[in-house]
Design a protein that fits this description.
Length: 140
């Protein structure tokens, strides 16, 4: 899993939750629209200074965004085979692996040893009870 991708997903989710455009946030954060887009897509790693500026433009504390990222990574680590401890143990995951802790649902798809797609979404009351492909993690 690429940490920059999880950070980008967290930033994008906050921006979209505020119904703001890339242009609005990039202007407020004093970063180019294209670079912010690359950060949100996990293609570029933001420096700590730039990440703080983006968080400020979103009206979020850096610690809040990093906590969201940490929670997502922690949940993914608990799904068997998603984050192996050594490269030699890297499994090939064809089907998405699904996990939920009642508040957040995470879908992980390992496309190759260097690329893992992690999607996280907040669960609304009543949405976490449906069936899902893969494994379900409860009681986390």
């Amino acid at each position: 899993m690429l940490l920059r991708r999880v950070i980008g997903d967290a930033l994008r989710a906050r921006r979209q939750g505020q119904h703001r455009t890339l242009r609005e946030v990039s202007t407020a954060a004093n970063v180019s629209l294209g670079y912010l887009s690359e950060i949100e897509r996990g293609q570029k790693e933001a420096s700590s200074e730039l990440l703080a500026s983006i968080c400020d433009a979103l009206g979020a504390r850096l610690s809040e965004v990093l906590r969201d990222v940490s929670d997502t990574v922690a949940l993914a680590e608990q799904v068997e085979g998603v984050l192996p401890s050594t490269p030699a143990q890297t499994p090939r995951v064809e089907e998405p692996v699904w996990a939920a802790d009642g508040q957040v649902a995470v879908t992980v798809r390992r496309e190759n040893p260097l690329r893992t797609t992690l999607r996280a979404r907040n669960l609304r009351p009543g949405n976490g009870s449906g069936t899902a492909r893969g494994r379900e993690l409860t009681g986390v």
